């Protein structure tokens, strides 16, 4: 499906406001274009000696009315276009966030936070300036330009004098064609370097504690300084070409004024045009100077914003890797088995498969344990169940339905996934636990916290469950974060719960209590436990051992201990460590 970009939906909703603004600007410019003619007529009457007091009042009132009309109509037109410019920021940032929320994990693995923030901040602002200030100034300047030229043609000023006076302005379109693409290209480089710097800053701030612990501040300052230097280089390159362009446009306007003064003055001395026409001509040309300057600024801004617009349109054209089928149906994980048949999966751009020939049946209510070395494919396997990455067709079935033909909402709403990192949002503890159940009662939150063995820790905080986390609140330990994340999984009471090494940061006693709770609370519900410590999954109905993406062992805890293999070896190592730690 082809993307509409960012401007088409926006202009569909706001075109009538822009039309009203342009109409107001046109009316204001036509009114203002009478200013030189009125002043020229006043000059001719003054020179001829027929100017009376009533004429002075008449022309004064006309000039006041011209000024007031220009200010009121032009001012309201400017308000309208600036209003819809801010509306563009509102609409586009909402669309961007919605678009980001639908993109798959593969996109985020290749694009950093800094780059995405640059879309929200610099690119949206750049385009907004172009379509608000740019359109406002273009409308006002263009209308005034055409009004002045039209008024000049309709006046008694000879056409050959008008042509000679405005002749240098014909070069402006040629200059735009030559310099415009250069400005756009250099502006894109500036935006890309800003995104890289933002990404680096986000990483540096996130890792500032590590930096200080290893006392490598000079190295990080030097690394960040390199990104800033690149921005300076790109910006100076843009400033040089932009300054050249902005200098050429008013220069051509000044050249027009020189021609009108020299040639018009000569014709006035020769008596071929009146003094009033000469005054009107110079005023008209002088009035053209400001629109030309504005048009030069607008063209410069538009060329820079086109780079931002191109980046935004390219982003909106990115399609999610995970797409719901047209005939997708809701899944029922509570009653349907999960059948994995000859599953082989390779990450995009990866040289070899992460999973190879996986065959597995997970019955409803079963507890499945998954163990294996780091990088053996444990997390990759459960990501297939969540459709974070799409498995091959017919590789995974929920009941009789291919998982690719199941609605994403029904699938993910029935899975409580608890990752190892235990990410928490910068909000209250209660809101973090009730993240997937916003309307949960406090008793449900308390129960989930108790099941995750975090309730007592939360109760010790002065504000309890309303304690703020993150930058403006307290910082939890690794074990506390994991248990809070675990409570977020418990409160869902989902038919399928996936614990991805979710108790790795807790002590052995707490782990034992949590495992016991899982056995009690998850009876009759499907649970998948990924762990490095065998003690966390030895109660499982089925345990599989992964190695380099393949299932090398499967069975119950006692069965796997009875046969030689990696499971028994890992158990022996962990038992030996436990005995050593206990002093036996």
Automatic annotation (TrEMBL):
GO MF terms held by the record: ABC-type oligopeptide transporter activity; ATP binding; ATP hydrolysis activity
Keywords: ATP-binding, Cell membrane, Membrane, Nucleotide-binding, Transmembrane, Transmembrane helix, Transport
CDD domains: ABC_6TM_TmrB_like (cd18541)
Superkingdom of this protein's organism: Bacteria
Transmembrane portions of the chain: 15-36, 56-85, 138-154, 160-179, 244-266
Ranges for domain ABC transporter: 338-573
PROSITE patterns from the UniProt entry: ABC_TM1F, ABC_TRANSPORTER_2
InterPro entries reported for this sequence: AAA+_ATPase (IPR003593), ABC1_TM_dom (IPR011527), ABC1_TM_sf (IPR036640), ABC_transporter-like_ATP-bd (IPR003439), P-loop_NTPase (IPR027417), Type_1_exporter (IPR039421)
Protein topology in the membrane: Multi-pass membrane protein
Residues of the ABC transmembrane type-1 domain: 26-304
Subcellular location: Cell membrane
GO cellular component, one term: plasma membrane
Record's protein name: ATP-binding cassette, subfamily B
Source organism (scientific name): Paenibacillus catalpae
């Amino acid at each position: 499906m082809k993307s509409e970009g960012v401007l088409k939906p926006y202009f569909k909703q706001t075109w009538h406001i822009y039309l009203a603004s342009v109409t107001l600007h046109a009316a204001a410019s036509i009114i203002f274009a009478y200013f030189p003619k009125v002043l020229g007529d006043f000059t001719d009457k003054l020179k001829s000696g027929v100017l009376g007091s009533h004429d002075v009042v008449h022309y004064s009132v006309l000039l006041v009315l011209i000024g007031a009309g220009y200010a009121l109509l032009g001012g309201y037109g400017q308000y309208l276009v600036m209003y819809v410019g801010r509306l563009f920021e509102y609409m586009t940032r909402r669309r961007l966030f919605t678009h980001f929320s639908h993109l798959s994990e593969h996109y985020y693995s290749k694009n950093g936070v800094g780059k995405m923030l640059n879309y929200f901040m610099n690119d949206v602002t750049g385009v907004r300036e172009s379509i608000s200030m740019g359109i406002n100034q273009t409308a006002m300047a263009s209308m005034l330009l055409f009004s002045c030229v039209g008024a000049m043609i309709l006046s008694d000023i000879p056409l050959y004098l008008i042509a000679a006076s405005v002749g240098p302005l014909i070069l402006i379109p040629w200059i735009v064609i030559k310099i415009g693409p250069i400005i756009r290209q250099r502006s894109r480089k500036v935006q890309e370097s800003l995104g890289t710097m933002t990404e680096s800053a986000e990483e540096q701030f996130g890792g500032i504690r590590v930096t200080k612990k290893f006392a490598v501040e000079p190295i990080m300052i030097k690394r960040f300084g390199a990104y800033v230097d690149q921005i300076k280089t790109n910006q100076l390159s843009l400033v040089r070409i932009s300054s050249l362009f902005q200098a050429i446009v008013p220069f051509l306007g000044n050249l027009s004024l020189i021609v009108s003064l020299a040639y018009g003055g000569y014709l006035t001395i020769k008596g071929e045009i009146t003094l009033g026409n000469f005054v009107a001509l110079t005023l008209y040309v002088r009035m053209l100077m400001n629109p030309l300057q504005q048009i030069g600024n607008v063209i410069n801004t538009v060329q820079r914003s086109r780079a931002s617009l191109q980046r935004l349109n390219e982003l909106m054209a990115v399609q999610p890797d995970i797409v719901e089928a047209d005939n997708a149906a809701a899944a029922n994980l509570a009653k349907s088995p999960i059948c994995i048949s000859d599953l082989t999966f390779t990450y995009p751009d990866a040289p070899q498969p992460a999973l190879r020939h996986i065959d597995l049946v997970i019955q409803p209510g079963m507890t499945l344990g998954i163990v294996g070395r780091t990088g053996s494919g444990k997390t990759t396997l459960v990501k297939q169940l969540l459709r974070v990455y799409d498995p091959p067709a017919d590789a995974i079935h929920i009941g009789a339905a291919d998982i690719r033909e199941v609605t994403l909402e029904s699938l993910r709403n029935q899975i409580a996934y608890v990752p190892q990192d235990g990410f928490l949002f910068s909000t209250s503890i209660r809101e973090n636990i009730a993240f997937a159940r916003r309307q949960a009662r406090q008793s449900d939150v308390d129960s989930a916290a108790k099941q995750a063995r975090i309730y007592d820790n939360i109760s010790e905080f002065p504000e309890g469950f309303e304690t703020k986390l993150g930058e403006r609140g307290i910082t939890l330990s690794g074990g506390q974060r994991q248990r809070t994340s675990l409570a977020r999984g418990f409160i869902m009471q989902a038919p399928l719960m996936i614990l991805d090494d979710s108790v790795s940061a807790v002590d052995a006693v707490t782990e034992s209590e949590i495992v016991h709770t899982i056995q009690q609370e998850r009876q009759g519900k499907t649970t998948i436990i990924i762990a490095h410590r065998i003690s966390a999954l030895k109660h499982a109905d089925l345990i599989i051992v992964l190695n380099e993406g393949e299932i090398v062992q499967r069975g119950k805890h006692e069965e796997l201990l009875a046969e030689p293999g990696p499971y028994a070896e890992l158990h022996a190592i962990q038992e030996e460590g436990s005995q050593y730690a206990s002093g036996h």
